[in-house]
Amino acid sequence: MIYKGRVHKFGDDVNTDLILPARHMVTTDKAELARHCMEDADKNFAKKVKAGDIIVAGKNFGCGSSREHAPVAIKACGISCVIAESFARIFFRNSINIGLPIVESKEASKEIRNNDVVKVDTKTGVIKNLKTKKKYRIGKYPPFMERIINSGGLMNSIKKRTA
Amino acid sequence: MGHTITEKILLKHTKAKEIHPGEFIDVKIDLCLGNDLTAPFAIEEFEKSGAKKVFDKKKVVLVPDHFAPAKDMRSANQCKVLTHFAKKYGIKNYFEIGRMGIEHALLPEMGLVMPGDLIIGADSHTCTYGALGAFSTGVGSTDLAAAMIRGEAWFKVPESMKFIFFGRLNKWVGGKDLILHLIGNIGVDGARYMAMEFCGETIEGLDMDNRLAMCNMAIEAGGKNGIIAPDRIAKKYINSIKKRPRPGKGKYYSSDPDAKYFKVLEYDVRKIEPLVACPDLPSNVRPVKALRNVAVDQVVIGSCTNGRISDLRLAAKILRGRRIKSNVRLIVIPATQKIYLEAVAEGLAKVFVEAGGVFSTPTCGPCLGGHMGILAEGEVAIATTNRNFTGRMGHPKSQVYLSNPAVAAASAVKGRIAHPAEIV
User: Fold this and answer.
1) What class has domain B24-155?
2) H helices within B240-364, ranges in order?
3) Contact B146 A89 (CB under 8 A)
4) What distance in Å separates the CA atoms of residue B176 and residue B303, rounded to the nearest whole number?
5) Domains of chain A listed by start with CATH number
6) Separation of alpha carbons B331 and B383, rounded Å
7) What pLDDT is attached to residue B175?
8) Contacts of A100 (CB under 8 A, 6+ apart)
């Protein structure tokens, strides 16, 4: 898959309380959750995001609570892919399970700037910064995860296996 | 090659004959858990999948504890989703208001957690049960949905880190201080994806409440699970539970002497004094003594970390016969109904109320900015909870400091962060 969009840059240890504050966890309505995405970091974040945009962050993105509402809000507000130096483990598995593409690259996380436009190709394993023309390599998902991703998330993957 | 306790439990629950860190496995689970915030998503997925029943009515646990007793109409609707699901599918372990408690205090107390178990919960602090020698970890709502249907979950076998604590604890130092010290040492991602094994003579001497508080915060170092090899203290705890719903006595695993660790760290606890994690990361740890000029508006004693009876006894020891500072709000929340009753019977509730505090029904409430004590703009709280992220307890411009119950109680008396030794 190829994802292309403008970058919204964040720092290290972005936690799930920041991504989606608990006070909004009174619904499973994805559009509503999307409206509150990142609001304690940037009140207008959800309004600024255009479909396809990409989040680039530092290490340990998504640390803290297990709330799936966090990756759901990111996906539902239009973000196509998250690039980070590293991800917290529950956020990582939640993203895989719901089909939010996330990729790790230390260099890309350090060098890509806010508002740059980048292209992520998960098939060839390359991130390209269209502004600086610089390319970054991303590792491949292990086959086990690849199966879940290619099925479109965990629930679909189970359906396929039990069908 | 020997195995760690974590590897042994995973191996026992998978079809694979041998496992190694980094490998992906499907495991059978002994228990799965959801609450009023995470279960509604899982239930939605469950219904969408067309599943007709849960894999085992006794192995699904639902606890409305976060925004419960329902803080508003929308939370009430979320709680109702759980009530209906429990009724429709005959869930045995659904805990309604009046019988519920904060899930990670409630499940061990009810005897739902056994040594050697493999437990997943759609709540990050599910790692708490490692204190009883179970492999237990937080997952998301979709994982919970899949587990309710299949009784299985997928995992990457984690590498293990061993944390050896030795020496005699200083006065007013407990499990909370040990884990804060550790997180301060390795950072909030210092054990990312790792199994965190706590051992050594200090741990062997810790009571169960302190062990639960330590394992509870493994996630704050990025850990997959926190675990302590079950011993006679764990056995005594299990045996003390009346009318255990689970048959058997659990399986007591321990790590082999030649098990492989990613890293082994040792801590001399004689050097550890009461600690506080400053805003806005649990790793931002400093000694209480260095923070005596920090004024507080609110003190919260409770949560899945430190809302157990020994925590309340410790706080009462400081507060007995004293009044809290007039401009401070003290909110004490026993973690379960059993702890609530014990606190009343022992006169602890009276101590808290006479000191000028409130004594609440069990709820996660303020810990995650839900209800029962939300902070206003610019306010500062010291809490025995587990997270101090920006806006965690309310306004994005409020601040949370984390400590043990004795430090929190002392701070309520002084109106600023205080060392218990300043008072008793």
Assistant:
1) alpha beta
2) 303-306, 309-319, 337-345, 348-354
3) no
4) 12
5) 2-162 (3.20.19.10)
6) 9
7) 98
8) A71, A74, A75, A79, A81, A82, A94
Contact B81, B47 (CB under 8 A): no
Alpha carbon distances (Å) from B20 to B1, B11, B99, B157, B197: 10, 10, 41, 7, 17
**Which of A10, A39, A59, A68 has the highest number of chain B CBs within 10 A, making it the mutation to test binding with B?**
A68
Give the CATH number of domain B276-419; options: 3.30.70.1060, 3.30.499.10, 1.10.1740.10, 3.40.50.300. 3.30.499.10
- For the segment A47-52, the average pLDDT, to the nearest whole number, is 97
pTM over 0.90: yes
Query: pLDDT (tens digit, 9 = 90+) per residue, A2-22?
Result: 999 999 999 999 999 999 999
Locus of tokens 């299990």: B238
Reported for A144-147, long-range contacts at CB under 8 A and 24+ positions apart, including other chains, are: A144/B24, A144/B154, A145/A96, A145/B24
Of the candidates B24, B40, B121, which has its C-beta nearest A28's C-beta?
B40
CB contact under 8 A, B390 and A40: yes
Q: Which of A27, A41, A63 sits opposite B222 (nearest CB)?
A: A63
| Residue whose C-alpha is closest to residue B188's, from A61, A84, A40, A83 | A61
**Strand, helix or coil for residue B310:** helix
Residues of A with CB under 8 A from a CB of B: 13, 15, 17-18, 21-23, 25-28, 40-41, 59-60, 63-69, 72, 86, 88-90, 93-94, 97-98, 142, 144-145, 148, 153-155, 158-159
